[in-house]
Structure formats: C-alpha cells, structure tokens
Amino acid sequence: MKILLLSTIYLLMIALGMSLSLRELLARWRSQSASNWIRLLFVTFIIPPVLALLLSHAFRLTGQETAGLFMIGCAPGAPLLTRNVSNKGFDMYTAASYQLWAALMILVMVPLLTATAGAIYDRDVWIPPKALLPQVVTRQLLPIAVGWLFAALFPEVSRRVQPVVIKTGNLMLILSIAILLYFLGKEVLQTSPMVPVAAFLLAVSCMAAVHAIYVGDKGTRRLFALCNANRHVGLALILTSSFLHLQKSVPAVACYAVVAPLVMVIYAKLFPAVKAMPAGA
C-alpha cells in the first residue's frame, strides 16, 4: 500500500513539474504583497493548530486524539494539493506557489509549533528540521524538479508523455484512495464520535479563516481556502507515530483524511473558481 501511494504521488508530482513554468511560478510569488504573506502565514500555520487544541478541549478528546488533530493543524500543503485544487478549476500556478511555500515553511514552523504545544502541556517535544527535510524534498521538491527539468530538456517528448503519466497517475490514485479509505474507515469507526465532528469543524475553520483574515481578492481567497483545508495527512501520521510515538493518534488523523475531501468538494461547488488574478495587496 505504501509503495503504491508513494508511486502515485511521485508520478503526479512529476507530471505537475512537467506542466509548470518557473517564470509563472515566481510571478505568483511576487504578486503577493508582504501583508498577504504575513496573513497567509497566520491562517496556514497559527490558526489551524490553535483551533485544533480549542476543539479538542471543547469536545473533551483524549490526549492522543488531541495530538493527532493538532499535528493536522501543523501540517499544510499535501503533496497532491496543486492537482486537487487545479482540478476544481482554480489557478494551478497560484496553488503550486502556495504548496512549495508551505513545504519550505514546514521546516521552520512545525518544530516551533510542536515545541510550543509541548511547553503548554509541560512536555519536552522537539522535532528537528533535518528530520522533516527528507519528507519535503523526496515527496514534493524532487519529483517536481524532475518533471520540470525533463520538460525543459525534452519539451516535445514531455508534451507526448505527460498525458500518459497523468492518466496512469490518476488511475493509481483512484486505487490508492479506495484502499486507503477502506483502512482509514475502519480506524474512524473505532474512535469517539466527537473526533469526526472536530475534524469537520477544523476543515471548515481552515477555510473560514482565509476569508476572515481577508487574504487577497475573492478568487485568491477561494483558492487559498481550499489549499488551507488540504492538510498534509501523511506528514501528520509520521509526526504522531514516529516522532511523538502516539500510535493511538492515528484515528484522529484518519478522520480528517476522510472528512476534509468531502468538505472541499462541497466548498468548491458552493464557491467555484472565479477568473481573478492574485492581488498584490
């Protein structure tokens, strides 16, 4: 299962790299003002983990369930974020710029957030950036770079191969999701009924925060709202099980993995993409 999921991610990320223009990507970064980046940092890395802790307290979740929900709040920028958002009609380059930015910021923010939460709960928690670096490089930056380099060196071949890579990756993704939902569904059924409710409210709150903080124009806010709800479930699982050694946190992470995509689909139907370029202010 792990090999299938990783192969799917690599294929689709390579295909994404084939379709990306470095010039367009950098243009999206430059189009965001300093004020927007600060707001985006706040809604991406500060509000979700704080909300996760508040929701956990409100629903009286266990310590391990709280840890799982908190790590979801700390981990934005899922590997397939750009694909998921662009498939709903939103701007691929803005989504990709957000995804790469979030991946780089994870190296700084996750250690700070986990250490702060540990101090609040009187625990010594430290996740070193070097432990996160392989996750960011091997599952996001490297396959995108491979796809981009291949397209730059062999543009004609890339144009012919890309549709095949995307179709193959999509078929593998459908299979992976079906298998993953089967196992995650069993995990969800074994947990407290309040955990899925908390996961649902966290996904909705991640979207609402983008609108409340007013990040960019209407089109940009709708895109970033979807991006913000699309948390990095895989990284959250690794952090809770490998670094925090909290195996019973898995059901809380699994709940978010099941609930969030449904919330995103509903949101995209209610608030579809609009033809608006990212605002500079």
Question: Any chance you could write out the topology, listing elements then pairs?
Answer:
Elements: H1 2-19, H2 22-31, H3 34-58, H4 63-74, H5 81-86, H6 92-120, H7 129-153, H8 155-189, H9 194-213, H10 218-229, H11 233-243, H12 250-270
Helix pairs in contact: 1-7, 1-8, 2-6, 3-4, 3-6, 3-9, 4-11, 4-12, 6-7, 6-10, 7-8, 8-12, 9-10, 9-12, 11-12
What's the short version?
By secondary structure, this protein is an all-alpha fold. The chain has helices spanning 2-19, 22-31, 34-58, 63-74, 81-86, 92-120, 129-153, 155-189, 194-213, 218-229, 233-243, 250-270.
Protein architecture, described:
The protein has twelve helices and no strands. The chain has one domain: Up-down Bundle (Na+/H+ antiporter like fold), CATH 1.20.1530.20. It is globular, with a radius of gyration of 18 Å. The chain has 281 residues and is mainly alpha-helical.
What features would you highlight for this structure?
281 residues; mainly alpha; Na+/H+ antiporter like fold; 80% helix; globular; disordered C terminus
Helix residue percentage: over 70%
* CA-atom Rg in angstroms: 18 Å
Give the end-to-end Cα distance, rounded to a whole number of Å.
44 Å
Q: What is the residue-mean pLDDT, rounded to a whole number?
A: 85
Q: Name the structural class.
A: mainly alpha
- Kindly provide the name of the CATH class: Mainly Alpha
Q: Note the overall shape.
A: globular
